[in-house]
Amino acid sequence: MNSEKVDVALIGGGIMSATLATLLAELQPDWNIQVYERLGELAQESSNPWNNAGTGHAALCELNYMPQAADGTVTAEKAVVINEQFQISRQLWSHLVETGVLPEPEKFINSTPHMTFVHGSSSVDYLRKRRDALADQPLFAGLEYSEDPAVIGQWTPLLTKKRDPSQKIAATRIDSGTDVDFGAVTRYLFDSLKKRGVKVHLNQQVTTLKQQDDGSWKLKLLSLVGRYTNTVDAKFVFVGAGGGALALLQKSGIPEIKGFGGFPISGQFLRTSNPAIVAQHQAKVYGKAAVGAPPMSVPHLDTRVVDGETSLLFGPFAGFSPKFLKRSTWFDLPFSVRPHNLVPMLAVAKNNFGLMKYLIGEVFASRKAKLEALREFMPTAQAKDWELITAGQRVQVMKKDAKLGGILQFGTEVITSADGSIAGLLGASPGASTAAPIMVDLLKRCFPSDYSRWEPQLREMIPSLGTKLSDDPAAAAASLAATAKTLHLTA
């Protein structure tokens, strides 16, 4: 059988592939770009709005980006980096709205204040230090802080209604936060890409990847409808298959994947669409993680807008499943073990006993316990108003470490071959929110000879590219105002 020849093959129909395909279609419209998705619909795993928090991770409210050091200090460096990355995504979306690639912004992004909320003296002291560390940061301008229950209750009544008045509480609030439906962003990007000639193939599972003598890659595809096979020859391959990326990169045989493993974490949310409750809470409110909890399990009570309907989401409640995707096999974890990653994986298990204990506790937590966790945020919560839904799978990166043998990395990591002909994305949060900067960095790494030619056009799409808005208050304010205007957001 003759293989179809393509310039770019993208594996996975989520936000990462959609973003990379959009950038390449803008920069190199003459290239043959094709997408292969295992499921019958796009954006059904991590990009699905009910499988992620949709926060628009900008470190405005997520406390895990500013942990308190052993000496009690709190610094803003990582939070600023995350915010800078999200601004690149905002600028790209703004450009795509202006050029008609994305529709009216209300269909995928909405202004939603971002808040943090803590209780107890030590947590209040920490939040005050965090506020002080962010006070002079241009991208965090407008951050409000209060320890007054009356003020916090004005921001969002559900946090203070019927709360013990003797409990010490504190909160921050910033209006420039967002709620993002990454599933909608993904679908709209692919709709536009199809009109521009990009072919999207559904129900197509990549079973093997093999590099050929000329440096290109032969992909063997199994059609899950009809059960026939096909092959594709691609000059460049991107593996954006979420939890499935590790297995595919392992099949590719590139040495850069050696030593990497995956640690899957499942989760659940409580959700309500009761209009009387939803009307009292217009914010994403993040708290502090429990001892031993992974960063993506930081509790939060969120406003979510999906398909025009507003709901509230609380969680996530972490758990353990050996699956790497929500719709995959229970053998994902054991089948991912290789001689080269066995030692790092065992070291991670040994060095993260607290996490294991936490996850086991979460697996066996009752619905009553989950409601009690919600009542720490919303004292008036009633069981009858909330349903339990299953979130998406998150596969955290495990990799070699010279000192510890292996470490568990909470974040995303791009793996590229030495020749730049194949790349893949591992990890989770902040993930979708930083798809644009991650994919721009991938272009620079995998297409070095083309990047200098593309860079002027990229700067038109993303004006702050290559600079730090946080170093220039005027530029930061101008960028926030410009994207807010185009995306119909609060600046």
UniProtKB/TrEMBL annotation:
Swiss-Prot/TrEMBL keywords: FAD, Flavoprotein, Oxidoreductase, Tricarboxylic acid cycle
Pathway: Carbohydrate metabolism; tricarboxylic acid cycle; oxaloacetate from (S)-malate (quinone route): step 1/1
Biological process according to GO: tricarboxylic acid cycle
Catalytic activity: (S)-malate + a quinone = a quinol + oxaloacetate
GO MF, any single term: L-malate dehydrogenase (quinone) activity
Entry's EC annotation: 1.1.5.4
Pfam families referenced in this protein's UniProt entry, alphabetically: Mqo (PF06039)
Keyword Flavoprotein among record annotations: yes
Top-level taxon in the UniProt lineage: Bacteria
Annotated InterPro entries: FAD/NAD-bd_sf, MQO
Obligatory cofactor(s): FAD
SUPFAM superfamilies tied to this protein: FAD/NAD(P)-binding domain
Similarity comment text for this entry: Belongs to the MQO family.
Protein name per UniProt: Probable malate:quinone oxidoreductase
